[in-house]
Specification:
Layout: H1 25-42, E1 45-49, H2 57-69, E2 75-79, H3 91-100, H4 115-126, H5 132-142, H6 146-158, H7 165-176, H8 180-192, H9 198-205, H10 209-221, E3 225-227, E4 233-235, H11 238-246, H12 250-266, H13 274-287, H14 291-307, H15 311-324, H16 331-335, H17 339-353, H18 356-368, H19 376-392, H20 397-408, H21 416-430, H22 434-451, H23 454-470, H24 474-491, H25 494-510, H26 514-531, H27 534-551, H28 554-565, H29 572-588, H30 591-597, H31 602-605, H32 608-624, H33 628-638, H34 650-669, H35 677-690, H36 697-713, H37 719-731, H38 735-751, H39 755-772, H40 775-788, H41 800-806, H42 809-819, H43 824-831, H44 835-849, H45 854-863
Parallel strand pairs: 1-2
Antiparallel strand pairs: 3-4
Helix pairs in contact: 2-3, 4-6, 5-6, 7-11, 8-10, 8-11, 12-13, 13-14, 14-15, 15-17, 17-18, 18-19, 19-20, 19-21, 20-21, 21-22, 21-23, 22-23, 23-24, 23-25, 24-25, 25-26, 25-27, 26-27, 27-28, 27-29, 28-29, 29-30, 29-32, 32-33, 32-34, 33-34, 34-35, 34-36, 35-36, 36-37, 37-38, 38-39, 38-40, 39-40, ...
């Protein structure tokens, strides 16, 4: 009856007797201890008390009593609280102090989420990987607080607001409980920005030093403000500052921003340095609606951010300056820069940030302001500047712009070396003419040497190396690329050095030197991260992911891709990482994931390599889904390209022949005639493959496997053709391709009556597929083994006991649900795991049981009595 004081539902009538018989607190505590002890005597007990920062003193006294008295009982007491909600005089501080002295108490401080953990949380909420922009914004504002992350996403999706009303009320509730002077100081501090110094805050609030110190002490004691390592005051949570700022009246806000800006101009030492001063002045003058005084500070803030490799921040400042420019009288004099120069700087910042289309549009505006006749050199350099992002978007206009720039320059102009280098790269990137590109790159090298410019020489060498490699002189091209990278490093040009890393890792991958390619790409990723080169970082990361995927190191590839997806800017960089993800998902047999991320087209991104890569992957997705005619349609137009001798076109030949082989095989099984297009398409694909040189291991792999698929399309079970493909892919160090070729080799061996050979081939293929967790291939191997009646070593266990040992406890749980007909999402919900984790468990189970399908796995489980107790 007395326990009803804690839980009234135990005895509602007892409430009426409380006032008449208040009882003893100690007796109540003893009764509660008795209940806990009796429960623990039946089985171990975990008692959880959450959000103790909201507990009253009596509840905290009860917890202190339990901490002192629970000694031998089988009880785990878990107490959770938010330490920022525990002010200096909160009664929980005394309990925490007592607990620290007890040997049977362990304190776990849960740190805020890091970027990767926030990404995982957002992915769980959204059901797909979040954009880099969303991750940046949510991470900055939530500071890793999981509750704030969830509320911010909810506010975006439900109302479009920055804060949900519920979250704003929670945040402001803490502020409203503080003393009025403290609230005044906090409102002023919220206007300051991320941090504010004592001197600056005192000048703006205009309160006496004693009142200011008392208010700040109150804010610090209540965990609203903290003092950072520099002695400045910072809101413990950015969202608290946002809520306080949003609660200020508009007029008061403008007044406070004006006061901050005027005080900073009067006392620049109140800022940490010149960069901070410019950023703070720009922020406060804009917020005070004084655009003329904001403009010079904004331009300077953009310059400072650019020189510090903070390109996203630079773009934000410079774009704001461009927006303000027409509203400011005599803007060039006030800003200290001409509009053409500002547009060029903003364009360069956008290139570094990764927004190539915006970069091109800004240069278009700058070119419109320059007279080509009066200032041909300036016009030429702007045309060259526009040619760079056009080249990176694989737009044919790049060559036209760069040739016009070259024509505008005088014969002795030192800028000719740079323009020639860009033109050489544009010829082979946008038009696929490596020989012309090589000739122009040679002229660029001569021009750079003539003026003694090592940076331009390094740039020209890197371009010459790429054209030489793809012209067929592979070793010489790689050696020259190493030379260009070393020279760029010596000259201190990080952009050229990173371009060499991108090209060199791609060339090594094309040569089948995947381990070297991955190692070099990791070096490039590290350099790009140090220098803040976000777009180049993504391109070299894409090369790392591709090398790992091709080599069969899929777990590391998945980690690299997941991380890069949250960092890649929109546009071409984001497209590359999405395609890497699709490639891996297809290999794993995760067709739903591939479908969600694979909808990329050339029109969206204007990049021929993206288009080629996307075309192959989308065709493979449709083929895996059984839609062979759609796969054929996707590949049809792309095979007419002139850029056949590139590593992103080679897989298309195989994919196209594989589709035709599947179509022919399906027609034979149904005893139907082949469509009229089939023979013509097979001949065209074979002719295209015959034009490729076989001087690279991956090229030999694609040539041999395309020929093997041609034999399959003709209904010829050619063991020799598939054996050649297996050998070629072994030499190229591509284990996923080896596994597929072994599977087809086993199919040909079974068709020719070589059952032992088929068994050996399937066993090796299955071993690779298990390591990769390639679900679809494992199912195909199991189905072939069943049809051909051949054994797969390491497949189905011979005894239930052996299988029980092989399967983990969790896999047995999953297998029970599979046998009950549950799908992956149902399994995930019932076992409180992600759908992806459930999919991995199912793949592992199929591999361990040697089952080709979920139904076969269930049948094997019942046959072996795996569910018997």
């Amino acid at each position: 009856r007395d326990l009803a004081r804690l839980l009234p539902e135990l005895d509602p009538d007892a409430v009426e007797t409380w006032s008449a018989d208040p009882g003893s607190v100690s007796r109540l505590f003893e009764l509660f201890l008795g209940v806990v002890a009796r429960l623990a005597a039946v089985q171990p007990l975990m008692l959880v008390v959450e959000d103790v920062h909201w507990a009253d003193r009596s509840t905290i006294d009860l917890l202190a009593f339990l901490l002192r008295t629970l000694r031998t009982e089988r009880v785990l007491l878990v107490v959770t609280y938010r330490d920022e909600d525990v002010a200096r005089h909160h009664p929980l501080r005394r309990l925490s102090g007592e607990a620290e002295r007890l040997r049977n108490v362990e304190r776990l401080a849960l740190s805020r989420f890091l970027r990767g953990e926030v990404v995982q949380q957002l992915r769980g909420i959204l059901g797909e990987p979040p954009s880099a922009e969303l991750v940046d914004d949510v991470l900055r504002r939530s500071e890793g607080n999981a509750f704030f992350v969830e509320e911010l996403v909810a506010a975006r999706s439900e109302t479009g607001a920055t804060l949900s009303p519920a979250l704003r009320d929670v945040l402001l509730g803490r502020i409203e409980s503080l003393e009025p002077p403290t609230q005044v100081v906090l409102r002023a501090a919220s206007v300051a920005g991320p941090r504010v110094g004592h001197r600056l805050l005192g000048a703006v609030t205009d309160v006496d030093p004693t009142t200011l110190s008392t208010a700040l002490r109150d804010a610090v004691d209540h965990q609203v403000l903290v003092a950072d390592e520099r002695g400045d005051y910072v809101f413990r949570h950015t969202l608290v500052r946002d809520a306080v700022y949003d609660d200020i009246l508009p007029g008061e806000r403008v007044q406070l921003h004006t006061m901050y800006a005027e005080e900073l101009e009067r006392d620049p030492g109140a800022a940490d340095d010149d960069a901070a001063l410019a950023t703070m002045l720009a922020h406060h003058w804009y917020a005070a609606h004084d655009v003329a005084r904001a403009l010079p500070a904004t331009v300077e803030a953009g310059r400072q951010a650019f020189s510090s490799y903070a390109y996203a921040e630079a773009v934000q400042h410079l774009e704001r300056a461009l927006e303000a420019w027409p509203r400011v009288d005599d803007a060039p004099a006030k800003a200290g820069i001409e509009l053409v120069d500002l547009l060029e700087l903003a364009s360069t910042a956008n290139v570094r940030k990764g927004d190539l289309r915006r970069a091109t549009a800004l240069i278009d505006q700058a070119l419109a302001l320059v007279d080509r006749d009066r200032d041909p050199v300036r016009a030429a350099m702007l045309l060259a500047r526009r040619g760079r992002p056009e080249r990176d978007q694989v737009r044919a206009e790049a060559v036209d712009d760069l040739e016009e720039a070259l024509a505008l320059l005088p014969p002795d102009a030192p800028q000719r070396a740079a323009v020639l280098g860009s033109l050489a790269a544009a010829w082979y990137v946008t038009r696929g003419d490596f020989q012309v590109g090589r000739d122009i790159a040679t002229r660029a090298i001569d021009a750079a040497r003539a003026i003694g410019d090592d940076r331009q020489l390094a740039d020209a060498l890197v371009t010459w190396a790429g054209t030489t490699f793809y012209s067929g002189d592979r070793d010489r091209g790689i050696a020259a690329m190493h030379d260009g990278r070393a020279l760029a490093h010596t000259a201190g040009d990080v952009d050229i050095e990173l371009r060499a890393y991108v090209n060199l890792s791609d060339m090594l991958r094309a040569m089948g030197r995947l381990r070297e390619s991955a190692d070099l790409a990791r070096q490039g990723v590290a350099l790009a991260a140090r220098e803040g080169a976000r777009i180049t970082d993504i391109f070299v990361t894409a090369n790392l992911a591709e090398a790992l995927v091709h080599r069969g190191e899929w777990d590391e590839a998945e980690h690299v891709i997941d991380e890069a997806l949250t960092l890649a800017p929109s546009g071409v960089p984001q497209a590359w990482m999405r395609l890497n993800y699709v490639d891996l998902a297809l290999g794993r047999g995760e067709l739903d994931e591939a479908e969600r991320f694979g909808d990329l087209t050339a029109d969206d991104y204007g990049d021929a390599q993206v288009a080629n890569y996307s075309c192959t992957l989308m065709a493979e997705l449709r083929r895996a889904q059984g839609n062979l005619l759609e796969a054929r349609r996707i590949l049809a137009a792309s095979l007419d390209t002139t850029l056949l001798d590139t590593s992103y076109m080679w897989p298309q030949l195989w994919s196209a022949m594989r589709v035709e082989a599947d179509i022919a095989q399906a027609a034979r099984m149904r005893h139907e005639p082949l469509d009229p297009e089939h023979a013509e398409r097979v001949a065209r694909i074979a002719a295209a493959a015959a034009t490729l040189r076989d001087d690279l291991p991956p090229l030999r792999g694609y040539i041999t496997i395309t020929e093997a698929e041609r034999a399959r399309a003709a209904g010829e079970p050619s063991v020799a053709a598939w054996s050649a493909a297996v050998d070629a892919w072994r030499a190229a160090d591509e284990s996923p391709r080896v596994a597929y070729a072994l599977f087809r080799q086993a199919e040909a061996q079974a068709a020719t009556g070589d059952r032992p050979g088929a068994s050996a081939s399937l066993t090796e293929a299955a071993e690779i597929a298990r390591t990769l967790r390639a679900r679809q291939l494992l199912e195909d191997i199991g189905a072939l083994a069943s049809r051909a009646g051949v054994a797969v070593d390491g497949g189905v266990a011979s005894k239930a006991g052996d299988t029980r040992t092989t399967l983990t406890a969790r896999e047995l749980e999953v297998l029970r649900l599979v046998a009950a007909g549950r799908r992956n999402n149902d399994i995930a919900e019932q076992l409180f795991i992600s759908t992806k984790t459930a999919s991995v468990h199912v793949s592992n189970i199929l591999a361990k049981l040697g089952a080709a399908s979920r139904g076969e796995a269930a049948a094997i489980a019942h046959e072996l009595h795996l569910f018997d107790e």
